[in-house]
User: What shape does this take?
Amino acid sequence: MLLADFLRFTYGSLKAHRLRTVLTALGIAVGIAAVILLTSIGEGLHRFVVAEFTQFGTNLISVTPGRIQTHGASLGAVNTVRPLSVEDALALKRAPYVQVSDPVVQGNADVKYFGRSRRVTLYGVGPDFSEALKMRVASGEFLPQEDPRSARAFAVLGSKVAREFFGGENPLGSRIRVGGERYRVIGVMQSKGQVLGFDLDDTVFIPVVRALEMFNRESLMEIHVTYEPTAPLAEVEQGIKRILIARHGAEDFTVTPQQKMLEVFGTVLDAITFAVAAIGGISLVVGGVGILTILTIAVAERTSEIGLLRAVGATQRRILLLFLGEAALLAAIGGTAGLLLGWAVALALELALPALPVHTPWSYALLAELVAVAVGLAAGVLPARRAAHLDPLEALRSE
Amino acid sequence: MRLSDLLNFAWQVVRGSPGRTFLILLAMGIGVAAVVAVTSLGEGARLYVVNQFGSLGTNLIIVLPGRSETAGAMPGVLVGKTPRDLVLEDALALKRSHAVRRIAPLIVGAGDVRVGARRRETPVLGSTADFIEIRRMELAQGRFLPEGDPRQSLPVCVIGTRVAAELFGTRQVLGEWLRIGDRRFRIIGVLAKQGESLGFNTDEIVIVPLAAAQALFNTESLFRVLVEAKSREQIRYAKEDVEEIIRLRHEGERDVTVITQDAVLATFDRILRALTLAVGGIAAISLAVAGILIMNVMLIAVTQRRREIGLLKALGATSRQIRLAFLTEAVLLAMGGAGVGLVVGQLARNVALQLYPAIPFQAPWWALLAAPATAVITAALFTVVPARRAARLDPVQALSRR
Assistant: This one.
């Protein structure tokens, strides 16, 4: 039997029962479409989270006081007996490969301007904050490069705060009151939008020592360190730890590279995507049962045909391959249809809900098609074996 | 045609091709079992979270410093500081409200705890005697922080079981001294083992009097104030009172966030319910696939049973009766599959319960009803086309053609 004959035979038997073929393939198609759609949403979400994080740069390391983590946040940032100081942040500038090191303390304060008042997120930061987090200044400048231990009372506004207070006016040079103290506005940040539910535009940035004074605390919440992107991460971490241990006498701080956090998020999101896709994949299994049922019926119907084939010299192997081929082809057709269906729905979703991140990687499409064919083959094994093991004499007589 | 005849007709078919019947039952069963198992997981997670929240205390109101103009960030994310602290006097003033039963101010922080040469870093909580009542925690040994003026700093502490085991091994811990930072505390109680609860392990904490924590962390500002309302109905009034009292104390400024346990709980409840519904829906897609399979098999059956149908019609069966016969068959198959699926789903739930006894896996009642109902309805819907095709057969042609 030539390959061409093989294909023609399979095609013929699929075409003879067109409705049956369509329905069986539809079963697989629905399953594949569900899996493709769900993994697309999962992958879109993954990319969304990665994008949210990497907009602050990927070569970022965060140093927090204390070694206990609860709810993913450092408990030491709230209160600690082993504080991180501004001097620690300055010392970290000497660590190998380090580009900038910037102290951060964050809080909530009332900002007043001409009788108007607003509660904002207040960041006490060093002059390198905008560089460390890759945030740009829209007008004016960021906090000036001066000794962070004796910084002047300058403030930089987030874009939303600037808009709420000043509207169309130029805020540069104005005096505002932050938590009761007077600050001169020297810059306005570019809009950054919401990042993971946190509005970065409703913020005011002031020098870190002034914020520590205002909040009456001695410990920083975090030190942002950036390193040369080509530097080996392990060595950078080592360098930071060596300096801080020398200053504190023990390892009473946590060093979290941005990349580690991304990995953790990635693993969690991948696990969720996989679980949801697996639930969607149950329909694929049911589709496989469909192929199994239809092929079992087909073998029963075509007993005499099989007998004839065997009588004219087709081997058992050949019969087996014929039916397996039919199953695989059915599944492949269904898989392709499902792929198109899932992709179309994903596109429609993207158009209808631009907020929902959807992304279908090509590798998934290929994988889905392979899975469909595999399901088809697995479902075809039993009926194909039954067909191959038919006794040709008995089979011919069944007519 | 009587009902028993209908059932008999369908039963003949079902028994006539057991392999086919088995496969259809399998397909339907997988679908129903998937829906039941998946919703069990979701519902289990929901009940778990609800129980965990409930065990935090009852009629709880939480006051945290700071307020954000733009909603969005969860209040729990706000670990930031404020220029005007929430202080002990604010907390004590809350007792003036008639709707408040008791309050517990709270300071948390990381402290390194040392006993001799052993040291470990643990969360340190500073609070008052009412804390244990509000949080519904229990003691294994000794007693909790003493009543009395919360402004007074006594050098005593209560520790979690894990801390006790790691610092003292099997030694008796009551009456021993330990060091946190540069201060010494005498252990007067050990908390009962409770384990992880919402990401916070109470076995690993050390509780000291509020004034001691203030000195330890060199801060006046409270992290939270826990307030217990007198009853469920009083929560609303208690919340209003808390807001008003603090506003008056803070020179008319609203600079705290007050959240009620019920509100947080309701949010979680809603999210987890929606999630369960969503995964249940995804699993239910497989029921549609099983429906397609039933349609396919029924179509084949119509072709194979032309003569039988022709004979029935020749004997006077109406189109309606033929349709009914096929529908009966499909519904019977679906019900059988649903039954199998329910059993398998419950088995899966039992296995999950064995593996994770802490989480109360349980299929929600709506899933137990909806899964079989969906199975039967899809089966009936997908049989409409084959049944009509059978009913439309011309008896003469059906009988004459071989």
